Fold each of these.
Amino acid sequence: MEDQVTEKYLKIAIALTSFYFIVEVIGGLFSGSLSLLGDAGHMLRDVFSLFITLGAIRIAKRLPSKTKTFGYHRVEILAAFINGLLLVGISGWIFWEAIKRFIEPVPVKSPLMFSVAFIGLIVNLYVALKLHGSDDLNIRAAFLHVLTDALASLAVIFASVWIFFTGKTIADPILGGVIAMFVLFSAFTVIRDSINILLEAAPKDIDFDSLVKDIEKIDGVEGIHDVHLWSLCSNLNAMDAHIFTSISDMEKIEYLKAKIKKKLETLNIKHSTLEFECEECLQKRKVEKMEH
């Protein structure tokens, strides 16, 4: 039931954010405001972010198949990577326009700029209110993205008021450049994180050495080796490892496995494959090495 409510709010958020993105692009072109167009790029990032969040929830419900044993979790990462590249292009265009407007200022229709930015502030605050309070990491990230958009809309409102009363349009390309920098920073962050996941790097929020030490502290674990830790997508981590133990009773080993998996789940490692080796196994390996 909670997932259905979350999906409903995400769909509303996507519809409103997409609509306002279009409004902001049109408003930016007609008003001549570069900061509005820059904020539109920011909004486009949020549209993708919300789509990815909704996609992650839906993908999690799809069962793996014989050809895709991990399901479709990587679709989210591919979409994020493409989104990051698109945002780099948008940021570059805004920077170029800002430089041209420093050299040759362009008239800005501040009343239209104010109206569009004010609508954006209302839309962002409404979406943030709907997404606030969720325990889901993706929803919380989307909430923070929308909140930063609300602050950007507020900044555009102040710039439009400044231009209206002073007639100095230099504030618009300056603000446009600042927003473009934020968009570019977000784009590089998305691209970096996407590449790390596609390369199956260890999750950035998990300390590898601390994880190994925590597992070794569990009663019954004598050692751990051949550890592989990676992310399938932004909210699903996986691990496989060999656990050395002096326990030979299978029932006790199953109990030990449950304890380790419970510890791993606290670190958001939801998929783990653990192979247990007893002392006899270790001695056998030593003999095999000596023979070779």
Amino acid sequence: MDGQPSYSRSVILSGPDADLLFDEARRLAASLSCMSEDIAARPCGLCPRCRQIREDEYPYLYTLTPTGKANIITVEQTRDLQSFLMGKAEEGQYKVAVLADAHRMNEESANKLLKTLEEPPDGTMMLLLTSKPDDLLPTIRSRCRMLTFNKAVPLPARIDLELAEDILRELKDEGYMAVFSRAKQLTTGKQRSLQSLLSALEHIIREKMLLAVRTATDLSKTALYIEGLQRIWRAGYLLERNVNACLVMENLFLKLMDLPAS
């Protein structure tokens, strides 16, 4: 599809945290369906499709879970999934099927799924979520890209969180003076790891963004938080490539000045 990012058509999301896997599946679905004209900014989290996916109301996202006393994914469920994928979607939209606990497929349903994995319909994506990837048939594993997710990333160190809070407060209170003084201070002698500071800034801004989403506050705030996160990730990328650290941090702080006060 024109303008869509490139993705493997079938992906195994593996890890012990089912909620984390579902969140990542929604993120991938939103990346495909997002209406933002800036491909690099997808998923934007703000457009109607992103909101529908977040609220489990998107018509082209199909979730399949084990059923019955045996707690398995049956061949009948696999047939329903194939029917869903074969149906027509509106122009420019992807159909995404999510299989929770994919290792709970019995042999008949797994073999039924193989044909779809081998010849997926155009404009579709299958996401197989599992805590036991080795229990999937080798023929299924060989036809999918594998992404592994460990438990949630641990909190940044308290000293980095406190430093990040201080910097955000100074940027809001002192403006440009704080931008240049903090950037110089942080990159002279590098008393703290800049990557650790970026992780702490990301954590704080992500929490503010999620609070804004949950409380349904002004969506323009959410857009600013998203742009702030993107600038943090960009700063980390540049630092890894030995770009002038002081300039990187100055550019980042100039952007973080625009964040809402709360």
Amino acid sequence: MPIPDFQTLMRPLLAEYAGGEERPISEVRAALANSFELTEEELAERLPSGLARTFDNRVGWATTYLYRVGLLTRPRRSVYEITDRGRDVLAVNPQRVDLSVLSQFPEFAQFRKPSSGRTKSRGVDVGTTDVTETATPEERIGSAYQELREALIAELRDRISAVSPTAFEDLVLHVLGAMAMVRTIPELGRAVAATPASTA
């Protein structure tokens, strides 16, 4: 069968956590692949960019949405557990959980709303929840980019907030060091270019 889209994966993924125990997403991803009877070839299929496997990517997005609206909690990195809200959603939606179901929660709009300073692209608000069918491919790409950017920002914030003060200090020093290198490399290049060649 074809690889299910990320919305189709949402309810089966949430149901995998219905037992209440903490489970690593890798274990659940394997269970979903088995449940949907995906072949080795299908599991090996990659996105057009080649950067990730299609199925892994779709499971990742389904997980991100379920986590962001509070249906799953993440006690540790890559390990999730169902919440009371998640159990309620399973009970009320026995057939399917998708973006239309998730949109009832305020966290959904918060997750997908434009960040301050975001602009509109050719008259289409790239931060809105819905992109109309009349949007051009460029506009749809813009919307997807902004959604991915917001997800990455939220993920980074989560990871930073979870580290110890010492690890955070190390991270800040590393970033400052990298910023200094970015400024220094062009200056170094100009200095080398201005140095007369050796006559030896």
